[in-house]
Amino acid sequence: MSTTYRPAGLAARTDSLTSSAIRDLLALTARDDVISLAGGLPATDLIPIDRIAAAAEAALRRPDAVQYCETSGHRTLRSVVAARESLTRGGMPVPVESVIVTHGSQQALTLLAQALIDPGAVVVVDEPAYTGALQVFSIAEACIESIPITDTGMDTDELERRLAAGLRPAVVHTVANFHNPRGVTMSEQRRRHLAALADRYGFWVIEDDPYGEICFDTTESDIGVPPLPIACHSDRVIRLSSASKILAPTLRVGWFVAPPSICAAVELLKQGADLCGSSMTQLMAAEMLADTAWLDAHLVVLRREYACRATALTNALGAEFGDRLTVSRPEGGMFAWATFRDGTDTGELLDAALDHGVAFVPGTAFASDAQYRHSLRLSFAGSTPAVLAEAVRRLGAAHTASTRVR
Amino acid sequence: MSTTYRPAGLAARTDSLTSSAIRDLLALTARDDVISLAGGLPATDLIPIDRIAAAAEAALRRPDAVQYCETSGHRTLRSVVAARESLTRGGMPVPVESVIVTHGSQQALTLLAQALIDPGAVVVVDEPAYTGALQVFSIAEACIESIPITDTGMDTDELERRLAAGLRPAVVHTVANFHNPRGVTMSEQRRRHLAALADRYGFWVIEDDPYGEICFDTTESDIGVPPLPIACHSDRVIRLSSASKILAPTLRVGWFVAPPSICAAVELLKQGADLCGSSMTQLMAAEMLADTAWLDAHLVVLRREYACRATALTNALGAEFGDRLTVSRPEGGMFAWATFRDGTDTGELLDAALDHGVAFVPGTAFASDAQYRHSLRLSFAGSTPAVLAEAVRRLGAAHTASTRVR
Predict the structure, then answer these.
(1) What is the pLDDT of residues A86-107, one digit of tens each?
(2) What is the pLDDT of residue B177?
(3) Chain B 358-377, CB below 8 Å of chain A: which residues?
(4) Inter-chain CB proximity B273 and A110 less than 8 Å
(5) Alpha helix (H) ranges present in B117-226?
(6) What SUPFAM superfamilies does its record include (chains A, B) (predicted)?
(7) Do B132 and A49 touch (CB under 8 A)?
(8) What ipTM score was computed for the predicted complex, to two decimals?
(9) What is the pLDDT of residue A1?
(10) Mean pLDDT computed over A72-84
C-alpha cells in the first residue's frame, strides 16, 4: 500500500528561531589562544568553589536533598530569598508564597513570557537590550518595541510619550541596575516614574536584576548603591534575580517575586516544563545565601575585584584609543560599553579581533534591528588586569589592521 | 490625565492550564499519617546518597563544574550517554551529537513538543497515558488522540486502522518499557510495526523510557528484559530517558537521542528556555553512569528490591480483594495497575482511603477524558513490604467503609 502523505517535520515556530549571537560567539571564542571579553560569565577564579563543595556536603546529609521537590522551589530557599528580598526593599514585607524558584533567571523570563504574553502582544524592552530577553520575547511571538537607555536608565519620558500616543504594552522589561550591556543604573526618579506609568496604563514591569549586588563603591559612600527597586513603588512589578553571578551559574538557581495570580500560573507552566528544580542545588544556594557572615565577606571580595578589573579595562581602552572611543565608567556589574567615534564597524572589527586573539560582542547583538554598528560590549569580569591590558593591546592592533584594510 | 485602558492580565493560554492531578495529590498526601502509593518517586532509601556525595566532591575538583556549560549538555555526559545508548541498541552506533541533555526528561518532552507540534496538530498517546505527557501536549495546544494499551503495549493494529481512516499525527508518544501506569512492555512485533507505520505515514515516535533499566527478572532468563528499542527499527524515533529513576531526581538530568534537525531546533529553544543545565550535576551523573562496576551492582540491588516490593503489593492486594480486583503483575518499573470488578469508583474510594491513611492515583488521572473510573495506579517503589501490607489493609478498610455508605 502506498500513501501520499507529507512527512511530519518541525513545527512552524522553528522557522523563525535564531541562535543567540552571544552563545554562538562563545563557541567560537573557546579557543585557548583567544582572550574572550565576550561572555557574560562571572569570573571562574572568584567562584567560591570550596564553599560550594561544603554546601553540597551539608545538603547531602538530608534525604530530601536527593528527591523531587515542590514545583515552586524548596521551601528553605524560598524563605531565604524572601527575607533577603525584604531587606533589598528597605524592610517591606515579602511573603514566602510570592517567591518562585526557577532554573536560572532565564527560565523565569521564559515562564513569565508564557504566562503574560499572547502572540502579537506588545513588549517594551531597553534599547540596547539584554539579548536573552530579546530571544525569549521573540520565541513568545511578541511585538517588540524599544525605548532608549540614557545615563539614568530607560527614558521614561519617551515611554510616556509613546504611551500617550497609543502604545499599549503587556510587559515592560528593564535591567535597572548596572545594565547589560550599557552598565548604567536607573535613577530613583525614573523608577518612580516607570512604576506610576505601570499603574496608570496597567502593564507589567519585569525588573530583571542579576547584577544589583555587584556594586563597586559601597565602603566610603552610598554613591554606587542602586536606589530602591522599582517594585517598591508599584504592585505591577515582577522582580527577577539569580544566584548565578554572586555564587555560581552551575547551581541553576534563579527566582522571581510576583503577585499571587502570576505565581500560580507560572507554577502550572513549570509543572509541565520540568516538574521541579534540583533540591540539592537549591539547598546549597539557601545555605550560602543564609550564611550572611560568609556571604558579606565574599561579596566584598567580588565587588573589589570587579571594580579593579573595570578600572583596568577602561583605563587601558582610554590609553589605547583616546578620543576615538567613548567608554562607559561602570559603577557595578560585569560590562563596559564602548562606541567608536571614527566610523569603525564593530561587526567587521570582530573578524580582525579574532585573528588577533581577542573577542567582544558587537553592539548589533543587543538591538532588535540593525543598530549599534559602532558599539561593542566588553566583559571585564572574567580576566585579571594584566590579561585585560593584553586584550586591549590586541584590540588596538586589530583596529589598526582593519583600518588599514579599509 | 485619566485613561480608559484594560490592565494587562495573564496570557489567554493560562485559562486552560490545569494542575497535574498527581502533583496536587502529592501535596495532599505529604501528611505523616498517610502511606502514599500515589507518587512516581523512586525509593528514597534506595537512592545512593553516599555515591552521589562522592560524585559531587569529584565534580567540584574541576573548575568547569561551577560555570555555565554548553546548551546541549556537558560533553562528558553526552559521551557517556551515547555509549550507553549504543549498548541498549545492541551495538548500533550513536553519535555524541545526537544526544541532548535536558533538565529532567520532562523538559525534553516540553522542548520536543515546542519543536514538533504546531497548535492543532494531532498527537497520539497511550490509553491510559503518562499524565506529564498529557499536560505537555495540552500546553502545546495539540489535538490529543488515544490508542489503547493491551498486555503487549500500544495496540498498533488499531493505530494502523486509524491511520488508514485518515488520522495524521505529527507525533506518537509511548512508554514502551514497564508502562506508566499500566506496567506492560511493548512486544518486539509491535515495536517493529510502530516503526514501520512511522516510516510509512511520516510521523515522529517519542519513545519515552524512564524505566527500561528497572527490569526485575534478569538473572536466570531474559524474560524480563525488554526487546530492542523502537529506535532500532526506524530513523523517525526520538528516545528519551533520565537519571531520575536509577540515580536520583535531584540531579535533574534527562536526555534524548534524535536526528540532527531536531537536536538543532531543540538546542535553540533551550537557549531561550534556560541557557543550559548544571555542569555540576551533569558531571556527577556522568561519573556515576560511567562507573559501570558500581552502577551494575547498584542496579542489581534496585531491581531486586523493587521486584520484592512489587510482589509484596500484588500478593497483599490479591489476599485482600480476591476476585473483586484485577491486578497487573509488574515485570519492571515502579507501578501496579488495578481495576475493580465490583463497580467501585476509585475517585470516590480515594476520599475514604485518605481518611484511612492511604493514597493512590485514581485511573481518571491517566485519560484525556473520563475513563478508568474503576482503576487505580499504585506505586510500590517507595515503601517496604511491611508498609505495603499495612497500606493494603487500610485500603481494604476504606473499601469496606465506602461500600457500606453506598
Answers:
(1) 999 999 999 999 999 999 999 9
(2) 97
(3) none
(4) yes
(5) 131-139, 156-164, 188-201
(6) PLP-dependent transferases (SSF53383)
(7) no
(8) 0.92
(9) 43
(10) 97
Last residue of a domain, one of A290, A319, A340: A290
Query: At which of B290, B314, B349 does a domain end?
Result: B290
Which region, left, alpha or beta, applies to residue B343 given φ > 0 means left and ψ of -120 to 50 means alpha?
A: left
Percent of chain B exceeding pLDDT 90 equals 84
CB < 8 Å to A58, chain B: none
Same domain, A340 and A304: yes
B262/A contact by beta carbon, under 8 A: yes
Cell of B221: 532468563
Q: Report CB contact under 8 Å: A57, B60.
A: no
Check pLDDT > 50 for residue A324: yes
**CB-CB neighbors (< 8 A) of A52 in chain B:** 60, 66
C-alpha cell at A322: 583616546
Q: What does the pLDDT read at residue A220? A: 54
Which sign does the torsion angle of CA A232, A262, B29, B23 carry?
A: negative
User: Looking at residue B187, what DSSP letter applies?
Assistant: -
**pLDDT-based confidence at residue B3 (cuts at 50, 70, 90):** very low
Cβ of B121 within 8 Å of Cβ of A5? The answer is no
Percent with pLDDT over 70 in chain A: 93
Structural domain containing residue B379: 19-40+296-405
State the cell numbers at B91.
551495538
Which residue among B3, B49, B280 sits closest to A250, beta carbon to beta carbon? B280
Question: Which residue of B lies nearest to A113 if distances are taken between CA atoms?
Answer: B11
- Residues from chain A that touch B106, judged by Cβ atoms under 8 A, are 272-275
**CB atoms inside a 10 Å sphere around CB B164:** 11
Cα A49 from Cα A219, distance rounded (Å): 26
Q: State how many domains chain A has.
A: 2
